[in-house]
Structure prediction request, 426 residues.
Amino acid sequence: MNKSSKPATLCVQSGWQPKKGEPRVLPIYQSTTFKYDTSEQMAKLFDLEESGYFYTRLQNPTNDAVAAKIAALEGGVGAMLTSSGQAANFYAVFNICQAGDHLVCSSTIYGGTFNLFGVTLKKLGIEVTFVDPDAPEEEIAAAFQPNTKALFGETMSNPGMNVLDIEKFARIAHSHGVPLIVDNTFATPINCRPFEWGADIVTHSTTKYMDGHATSVGGAVVDSGNFDWEAHADKFPGLTTPDESYHGLTYTKAFGKMAYMTKATAQLMRDLGSIQSPQNAFLLNLGLETLHLRMPQHCKNAQQIAEWLEANEQVAWVNYPGLKSNKYHELAQKYMPNGTCGVIAFGLKGTREEAIRFMDSLKMICIVTHVADARTCVLHPASHTHRQLTDEQLIEAGVAPDLIRLSVGIEDAEDIIADIEQALKQ
Ligand SMILES: *Cc1c(COP(=O)(O)O)cnc(C)c1O
Prediction:
């Protein structure tokens, strides 16, 4: 196994590399702290002069092995695991933004991220301008201000299934001297590697396909190492000027390509502490070991079901980028030639009540606030995850009020269709 290994090999083999006599399987380092022989040794760790473990709020070997696997899969220089996808997106942005700064963000993003950016970041003094990701370049560029520090989008938006033109977004970000942050949760690095298209930072809710079994909430931030912070030093003083809380150390000078990840660990984890538990990291690793097998099955099933839905006369519309009729089909072919993911958005002819009755009539497919795991599940975002949004905000977020989000699992597609068929008859 080396850096040029194929994704399937990285899923199985990367991350934990046992030395002689160590466990073959990644152990759960269920320990808050780590032992040293002298006070001096420990002091060096606190000063970031040496790397090593001292307290699990900052770093833990189980987490680091899993983060290394995710970094390898994305083709990044480093990664960190966070307690949730929300924490990952917050850290990714907060690592380079502070009060008085500004962010430009695609409007078609996950409802939780929409609230995080639009409501909570605002309270911290960070303003966000949401833009239509399909708008022409000049229109998106017009949202930038002198204090803009990043551009943000989702490879495929949850739940609207809009496909992001990553190259376009990267061009706009870089022409304004800021990094592009892409939430790659739905595609996973099996189907899309945003760094190859110019993204600088990638985030994940590992809660979804990466875990894949709905056992553990978690997140990850990955750095490509490609963004030149020094070239835009005035915009990113947190990385390019001395950090007084570490005796005047400057991250870019001390850590080079690892500056961004080191700051996120040394500052954000130290102060905010949204670390993933080693137990969850262990379960996440088990999920990652089969990610390359599960994703194609999710895509194959979803394609078959999307085509079936499209041909059904009770169905008003189907949004799945794998369909030839889909607005994003071409972009999906470009960025995700092997398939997108298992999530289908669709609407039924008839009233909102009838849509709810359809969902309530499903037998094998459960209504759950979840998406992207092995079991097929369904949700009505306007009544559930996006409940806080107004109808106007729903449309802006790419979520039609009648949208049903079907997360196709890895069962046999015929059994999934049979369940949908019987529920439609109700
Ligand atoms: C679920 C999700 C999140 C939030 O992740 P949590 O692990 O639930 O905190 C962020 N982005 C996307 C695209 C998601 O689907």
About this structure: The radius of gyration is 22 Å. The longest strand covers residues 148-154. The chain has two domains: 7-287, 293-425.
